[in-house]
């Protein structure tokens, strides 16, 4: 197999660990902290997780660890969408296991959570792991979106684990996967199966975060990759001065990715879904806001610019959110009739006829392609696949229509040519930045320390991340601490609360204070490509979001 020179050189990169995890593994001890509680719905969560809720947080300190050397077999699962650094979580986990006892074994279940149900696995050895160290992707064992949620599935998991002598499972995933990890941990405890479950916080979306999980892994690399591309486009726009670029950015629900990229590149416009919802902006008002900005820049002869659009935007525009909810309910109730429709036109008619008058009006003004995209299959969690809705094209065409009208009325005289882009898959498997390589390796290493501490239902937590790695703090918190009750498929379910962009948080406030200037003037910043070798301030810095959140 041909391998790029960068990949070969990256094999030799030794990820940095927090100071405490650099000690001899037999001299690192878990230290029990304060008792924890879920942030919301305490009693209900406690009742649902009697064995794993309310447990103390854990950190590590120097001290003899007599049990870490016990021989163990651990299973690992990659769950959900790819995020740069997944291979390093597995590398860190593997290295910690081997440092503790060379006879320890790591089994990687293939293709995501379904791998454990199908008993499809690979024994991870140094030879097998070596070509994946410090590389992007999840291809070492693959990933998937199967949910582990029923008792039947849990029993299969227990059976498969027992067959292989697995006493601990590490689940690397986002909010849904870690919710499932918590439920599985509680189930194993309740049934006395003797299998620990530890989670690791993954998702480029950046929406799995709180005090103990400062950032989910992959966010740093993905946003730097998108920011490089946005910066390149900005420079092209500023050179040619003839296009408005509409760029949709991945991030299923929260706008963290769009906000971070805006902080990195200072585009003319960045929409923030959470603000759109909070201020109840309609689709029409968003279009007017963009058209006004285009018109204002045209007065300065700047008929070019860059607009960033978060992927999940449509679900935050009140009237479209309502429309999507109606469509979801309709498809759930009338799936047989809907599936029997012959073609897209019939499907659109089928839905149009059954919508409320308000939603029907909203649906009817949308272009045919967007209507089709709103009717596409839901993901396994019942969500609209927002990555497939072309919001960039929708907004570009609606702004163009409004500017044409203004031109006809004589209120606008600029030119308006657009280019649309979607950056998502470009960043999910990029070579991890030094930050993600270090952070992920630390998360995996630390996950084994939690296993060694006999803990279950915990998530691996590495904090103080805006400081150099030596100053990072390693530990764990019960996953239940991040849970609340939410309505899912018609009933209240315990789930990890998605962390959306906080409108009173420092990153948004910074953006808010500067966006008027960025809109009118050309204040583009060109971040350039991710660097792996060179000065720390270029290679090891994490996100602007984290720096602003942790600014002293
Ligand atoms: P995770 O939350 O599982 O990490 O995935 C996030 C994500 O990358 C979203 O940003 C995007 O909307 C979605 O996955 C795309 O899903 P798919 O990989 O199935 O196309």
Describe the structure.
The chain folds into three domains: 5-218 and 432-488, Rossmann fold (3-Layer(aba) Sandwich), CATH 3.40.50.450; 221-310 and 391-426 and 499-552, Phosphofructokinase domain (Rossmann fold, 3-Layer(aba) Sandwich); 312-389, Arc Repressor Mutant, subunit A (Orthogonal Bundle). The protein has 552 residues and is of the alpha/beta class. The protein has 22 helices and 15 strands. Helix 8 crosses helix 9 and helix 9 (256-265) crosses helix 20 (506-520). A hairpin with a 2-residue loop joins strand 14 and strand 15. The model has no long low-confidence stretch (mean pLDDT 95). Helices cover 43% and strands 16% of the residues. A nine-stranded mixed β-sheet has the order 1-2-13-12-7-6-3-4-5, sandwiched between helices. Bound molecules: 1,6-di-O-phosphono-beta-D-fructofuranose. The site of 1,6-di-O-phosphono-beta-D-fructofuranose has 14 residues, from loops.
């Amino acid at each position: 197999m041909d391998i790029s020179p960068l990949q070969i050189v990256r094999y030799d990169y030794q990820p940095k660990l927090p100071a405490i995890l650099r000690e001899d593994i037999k001299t690192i001890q878990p230290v029990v902290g304060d008792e924890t509680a879920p942030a919301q719905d305490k009693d209900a969560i406690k009742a649902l997780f009697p064995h794993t809720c309310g447990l103390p947080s854990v950190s590590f300190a120097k001290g003899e660890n007599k049990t870490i050397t016990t021989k163990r077999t651990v299973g690992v699962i990659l769950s959900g969408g790819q995020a740069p650094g997944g291979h390093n979580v597995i590398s860190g986990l593997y290295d910690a296991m081997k440092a503790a006892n060379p006879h320890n074994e790591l089994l990687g279940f293939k293709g995501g959570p379904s791998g454990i149900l199908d008993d499809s696995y690979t024994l991870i050895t140094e030879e097998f792991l070596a070509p994946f160290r410090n590389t992007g992707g999840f291809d070492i064992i693959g990933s998937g979106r199967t949910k582990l949620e029923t008792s039947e599935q849990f029993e299969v998991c227990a059976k498969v684990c027992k067959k292989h002598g697995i006493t601990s499972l590490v689940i690397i995933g986002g909010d849904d996967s870690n919710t499932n990890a918590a439920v599985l941990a509680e189930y194993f405890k309740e049934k006395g199966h003797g299998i620990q479950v530890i989670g690791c916080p993954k998702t480029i979306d950046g929406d799995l975060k709180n005090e103990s999980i400062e950032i989910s892994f992959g966010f740093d690399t993905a946003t730097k990759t998108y920011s490089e591309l946005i910066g390149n486009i900005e420079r092209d726009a500023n050179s040619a001065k003839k296009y408005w670029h509409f760029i949709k950015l991945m991030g299923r629900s929260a706008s963290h990715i769009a906000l971070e990229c805006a902080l990195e590149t200072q585009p003319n416009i960045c929409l923030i879904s959470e603000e759109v919802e909070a201020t109840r902006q309609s689709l029409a008002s968003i279009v007017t806001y963009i058209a006004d900005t285009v018109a204002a820049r045209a007065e300065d002869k700047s008929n070019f610019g860059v607009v960033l659009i978060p992927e999940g935007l449509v679900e935050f525009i009140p009237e479209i959110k309502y429309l999507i909810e109606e469509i979801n309910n309709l498809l759930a109730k009338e799936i047989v009739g809907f599936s029997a429709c012959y073609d897209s036109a019939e499907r659109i008619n089928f839905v149009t006829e059954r919508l409320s008058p308000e939603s029907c009006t909203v649906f009817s003004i949308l272009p045919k392609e967007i209507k089709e995209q709103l009717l596409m299959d839901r993901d396994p969690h019942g969500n609209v696949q927002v990555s497939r809705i072309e919001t960039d094209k929708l907004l570009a065409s609606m702004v163009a229509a409004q500017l044409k009208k203004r031109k006809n009325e004589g209120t606008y005289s600029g030119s308006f040519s657009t280019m649309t882009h979607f950056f998502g898959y470009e960043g999910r498997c990029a070579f991890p930045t030094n930050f993600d390589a270090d952070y992920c390796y630390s998360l995996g290493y630390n996950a084994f320390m939690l296993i060694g501490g006999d803990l279950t239902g915990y998530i691996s937590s590495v904090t103080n991340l805006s400081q150099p790695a030596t100053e990072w703090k390693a530990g764990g918190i019960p996953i239940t601490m991040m849970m609340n009750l939410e309505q899912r498929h018609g009933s209240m379910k315990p789930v990890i609360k998605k962390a959306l962009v906080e409108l009173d948080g420092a990153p948004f406030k910074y953006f808010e204070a500067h966006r008027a200037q960025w809109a009118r003037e050309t204040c583009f910043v060109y971040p350039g490509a991710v660097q792996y070798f060179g000065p720390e301030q270029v290679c090891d810095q994490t996100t602007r979001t984290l720096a602003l959140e942790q600014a002293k």
